[in-house]
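Deliverable D2.4 — example input (structure tokens):
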């Protein structure tokens, strides 16, 4: 299938001067510590509100989207980063993906599957383990650079008490990079709008590539300091629309000096299209398609953005079997 531009971006209407929906890379002066901070406003709100998720589910999906935004923005080439969880919990599957194209903008989308019967057994405030059921669950990170390039996939168990815990384990196990991060997603109870934010710091190896990591006393002290300061951030600070990411980073690291790099802009955009779904339907047998027809119409719903496309049998069953 040829890859053409079928994306229907959803218009983001942020207030003038808004610094939401961006990832800010940074580096702490004199330390081998780099990081990223992210703030999501309308982007996460649109993705979560396209579905009628119970709040606890929306919250962890929002955290997964926040993680995906940070990880996707590390990509220096065009491609797609997908972060997916599979588990035996009340949320059997969650997925978020980030697509980067020539304009460098990150296109985010995501959705969660819910086992409603299971979810109802966990009460109003289900735990992370209840939602994601860590026993046999895993999180998979896939980086796909397009048809000719190799796909990379890393996998980690869903152990821990939050999406951030799982991500920390991922970086330690798959990339041997000490990483500390915070992710948060919350709903404004007055407006009903969702916001999300996050920050991560990573301890870089000082040795030559392929050599042993040098963790002498001084670099260990730096790393401890950088992570303690990162963890001192308050949830309100991660979400505050009045506090831009530069000011937040300055607040945390001004004593050491923090250098920020160009931000990556984020938008909510789904890659579904009528043509794409028509191709999918075209792979079914005519009898199967006939079973899907209701009142003369086949309704196909995009799981990501919840848009419904309508087809008639003649659109998709050109070759009678
Ligand atoms: Zn869609």
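Example output (designed residues):
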């Amino acid at each position: 299938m040829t890859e053409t531009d079928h994306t229907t971006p959803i218009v983001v209407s942020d207030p003038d001067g808004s610094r939401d929906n961006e990832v800010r890379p940074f580096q702490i002066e004199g330390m081998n510590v780099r990081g990223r901070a992210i703030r999501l406003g309308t982007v996460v709100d649109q993705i979560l509100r396209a579905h009628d998720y119970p709040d606890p589910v929306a919250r962890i999906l929002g955290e997964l989207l926040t993680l995906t935004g940070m990880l996707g923005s590390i990509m220096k080439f065009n491609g797609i980063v997908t972060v997916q969880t599979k588990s035996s919990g009340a949320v059997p599957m969650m997925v978020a993906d980030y697509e980067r194209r020539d304009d460098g903008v990150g296109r985010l989308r995501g959705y969660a599957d819910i086992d409603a019967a299971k979810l109802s057994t966990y009460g109003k405030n289900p735990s992370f383990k209840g939602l994601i059921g860590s026993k046999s669950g895993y999180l998979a990170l896939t980086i796909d650079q397009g048809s000719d390039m190799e796909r990379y996939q890393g996998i980690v168990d869903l152990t821990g008490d939050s999406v951030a815990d799982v991500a920390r384990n991922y970086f330690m196990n798959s990339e041997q990079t000490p990483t500390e991060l915070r992710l948060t997603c919350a709903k404004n109870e007055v407006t009903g709008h969702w916001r999300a934010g996050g920050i991560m710091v990573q301890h870089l190896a000082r040795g030559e590539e392929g050599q042993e990591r040098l963790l002498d006393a001084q670099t260990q002290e730096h790393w401890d300091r950088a992570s303690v300061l990162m963890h001192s951030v308050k949830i309100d600070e991660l979400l505050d629309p009045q506090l831009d990411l530069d000011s937040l980073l300055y607040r945390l690291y001004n004593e050491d000096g923090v250098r920020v790099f160009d931000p990556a802009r984020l938008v909510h955009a789904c890659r579904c299209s009528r043509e794409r779904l028509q191709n999918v339907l075209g792979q079914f047998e005519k009898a199967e398609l006939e079973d899907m027809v209701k009142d003369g119409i086949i309704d196909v719903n995009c799981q990501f953005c919840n848009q419904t496309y309508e087809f008639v049998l003649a659109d998709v069953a050109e070759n009678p079997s």
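Residues 270, 272, 302, 304-305, 307 surround zinc ion (CB under 6 Å).
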